Amino acid sequence: MMRRAMLLAGAGLVLIGAAAARPVTYALPPEKEIILPTGAGGELTQAQCGACHSLDYVQTQPRGKGPQFWKDAVGKMVKIYGAPIEPGDADAISLYLAKTYG
């Protein structure tokens, strides 16, 4: 009985603390427009990849990984994350990324 009373009292203190908590606010840095380098497949890559995530994600991938890395990366976006990219477009994007960043 005493244990139950202590648990209830502790739960009450948690609720009081939660009610007194103030919301945390913060400022995000301004978004910057990222334009991928020109090249065959560049506009397609800009549109398809940029539709789902920041193009910072593309630019911060490790360099020198080669065509298979990019083919796998684009394949993951399609198969795992459901990116609506047609197979021919996925090949063009992978080739562009390999030439530009690989």
Automatic annotation (TrEMBL):
Molecular functions (GO terms): electron transfer activity; heme binding
Gene3D superfamilies recorded: Cytochrome c-like domain
Signal peptide: 1-20
Keyword Signal carried by entry: yes
Superkingdom of the source species: Bacteria
UniProt keyword list: Signal
Keyword Transmembrane helix annotated: no
Protein known as: Mono/diheme cytochrome c family protein
Organism classification: Bacteria, Pseudomonadati, Pseudomonadota, Alphaproteobacteria, Sphingomonadales
